[in-house]
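Journal club prep — side note

Before the paper discussion, L.F. wants everyone to see what a predicted structure for a comparable chain looks like in token form. Sequence:
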Amino acid sequence: MPLSIRNLSPQDVLGDETTLWKYLTFEKFLDFLLMKRMYFRRVDKLHDPYECLMPPGMYATAQDEESPESWKRFLMRHDEYINTERTKVFVNSWHVSEHESEAMWKLFGGSGHSIAVQTTFDTLMTEMSSHDLTAGKVVYTDVAQDDCQISDIYDFSLLKRKPFEHEKEFRLIYINNDGPDSPKLLDANGLHIQVEPAHIIESIYVSPLSEPWQFELSLAIIEGQGLSDRVTRSTLFNCPVMRR
């Protein structure tokens, strides 16, 4: 099946020129650039333990003696569903922003030499259009209080708790129905999907914390892929020149 777009609300529709960023350690960037593949992480191996799960408050409700039996049965079915489907869900994440983010450098690039890839919604969707993926912007909400309508595992994959709202995440979602025999699997934690990085990358930013020799090394490698005209060094921490 080709790529499909899922929007949980009209406010989450991205325009073709919406800017997307991926912040990567240098090693992960090399894997993307040289091996020509995109890494998808299994959701239950991500940092947030409630990925693709209902929040803890909703489980507490089921334990309440006054809760309707129908609600308790629903949560039991939810547990059965998630326990069988959750481990099949793999995601690749992008940051939605018109600007470079110091917080994202720290969270996903690390404290030293790292790389940020910049693209647009339309460019990314065009390259991924032939793959069996679902894409959408993550909604940060209180599932219990905001009366969210959850129809399937894709909806679960696009819902996160409000404390993670700073991530401004756009996700590519892959459901592995082939089990452990899938040729895409790297290991139990993740899988790769082949891509052409040159078709995705619009700009490459080298971390503002990188040493000069690290920038030169990055430039030499990127130049070998014919993409040197897309490289810039982040000026996020550059001190302005003061005129006397």
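L.F.'s comment for the group: The radius of gyration is 20 Å. Keep this in mind when we get to the figures.
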